[in-house]
């Protein structure tokens, strides 16, 4: 199919290869672009102000992918670009704050959009070292199921963790990862990222001690059979996590989908938790943004545990 020039909210974009199949089930780039255009109103608030890492599938999910952090050649001049110094190498990230920006990325076959737990607006400088005092405004509890773990197991684990987060004054928001696992996020008042890491690490350790048959905190595969890893490392400022409403580059298009706690409870009893792009758009039409609590202006203060004393 020839290049198509389309106007999106006042921006003219050149869309290419619209008939290319990006998923083995036949989903085309045109359908991917249409999804991201339709979901933009609820997705952009979760993307805006964050450094966006893209997982691109230029020839479809069956033929490989690559992560991209720096803005690519040909980036439109209306796309905001912000620089981050990671170690000693500056990275120029795009910031996606509009429907045209989202459609531009979809046209690049950037199926997956990943973001960190911090926003640029909360940092002490526009260019900063991410291992320093980056201020996080979210914490994420990433539940990574090991072999033999069912979605019902993950849902029961999410319910246990939600009670702990609520007990600490946080409002947990559950979502599917778009794959096998579940994730919980909670909004917090901007706090040093090392404190967020310490909080989730301490929580993970406590849950693994209380429920050793369900949780582990080690990455070692041998320890994860039939258990769920609480991946506290996802809160490090150099890490990023799939963004709510992002597609996943799997055999068929699934979406990282915000959930209600009633749905998590039903999943603990065996109900399925996997959603297609069309189902997600229907959910938004019916219920709005189920992750809206993550955008609240009034955010609770994170109770950061004391750092362990250095070994002598």
Descriptive terms for the model:
five-stranded mixed beta sheet; alpha+beta; 312 residues; DNA primase, PRIM domain; 26% helix; four-stranded antiparallel beta sheet
Notes on the structure:
Helix 1 crosses helix 2. With 312 residues, this protein is α+β, with helices and mostly antiparallel strands. The protein has one domain: DNA primase, PRIM domain (Alpha-Beta Complex), CATH 3.90.920.10. It is globular, with a radius of gyration of 19 Å. Strands 9-10-8-12-11 form a 5-stranded mixed sheet. A 4-stranded antiparallel sheet has the order 4-3-7-13, with helices on one face. It contains 6 helices and 15 strands. The protein is 26% helix and 24% strand.
* Known CATH architecture: Alpha-Beta Complex
For the largest sheet, list the strands in their spatial order. 9-10-8-12-11
Strands, total number: 15
Q: Estimate the mean pLDDT confidence.
A: 93
Characterize the quaternary organization of these chains: single chain
Give the CATH H-level superfamily.
DNA primase, PRIM domain
Taken from the alpha-carbon principal axes, the silhouette is: globular
Tally the structural domains: 1
Q: Rg to the nearest angstrom?
A: 19 Å
The biggest sheet, with number of strands, parallel, antiparallel or mixed sense and barrel status, is: 5 strands, mixed
Level-1 CATH class name: Alpha Beta
Brief overview:
Helices cover 26% and strands 24% of the residues. It has six helices and 15 strands. The protein has helices spanning 29-47, 99-107, 151-167, 193-210, 261-268, 277-287, and strands at residues 4-8, 11-15, 53-56, 66-68, 80-86, 89-95, 110-115, 135-145, 173-176, 182-192, 215-216, 228-230, 241-242, 247-248, 254-255.
């Amino acid at each position: 199919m020839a290049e198509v020039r389309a106007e999106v909210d006042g921006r003219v974009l050149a869309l290419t290869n619209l008939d290319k199949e990006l998923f083995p089930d036949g989903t085309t780039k045109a359908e991917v672009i249409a999804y991201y255009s339709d979901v933009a109103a609820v997705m952009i608030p979760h993307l805006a102000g964050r450094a966006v890492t893209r997982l691109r599938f230029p020839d479809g999910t069956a033929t490989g992918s690559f992560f991209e952090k720096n803005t690519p050649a040909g980036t439109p001049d209306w796309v905001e670009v912000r620089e981050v110094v990671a170690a000693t190498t500056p990275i120029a990230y795009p910031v996606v704050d509009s429907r045209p920006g989202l459609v531009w990325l979809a046209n690049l076959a950037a199926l997956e959009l990943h973001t960190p737990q911090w926003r640029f607006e909360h940092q002490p400088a526009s260019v900063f070292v991410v291992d320093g005092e980056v201020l996080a405004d979210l914490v994420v509890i990433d539940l990574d199921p090991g072999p033999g773990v069912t979605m019902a197991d993950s849902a029961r684990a999410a319910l246990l963790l939600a009670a702990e987060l609520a007990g600490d004054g946080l409002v947990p928001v559950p979502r599917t990862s778009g794959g096998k696992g579940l994730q919980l996020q909670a909004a917090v008042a901007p706090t040093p990222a090392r404190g967020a890491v310490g909080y989730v690490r301490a929580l993970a350790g406590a849950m693994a001690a209380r429920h050793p048959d369900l949780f582990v905190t080690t990455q070692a595969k041998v320890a994860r059979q039939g258990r769920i890893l609480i991946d506290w490392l996802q809160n490090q400022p150099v890490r990023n996590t799939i963004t709510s409403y992002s597609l996943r580059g799997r055999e068929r298009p699934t979406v990282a989908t915000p959930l209600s706690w009633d749905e998590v409870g039903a999943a603990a009893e065996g109900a399925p938790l996997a959603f297609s792009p069309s189902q997600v758009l229907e959910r938004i039409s019916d219920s709005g943004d189920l992750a809206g609590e993550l955008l609240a202006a009034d955010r609770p203060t994170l109770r950061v545990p004391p750092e362990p004393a250095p070994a002598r």
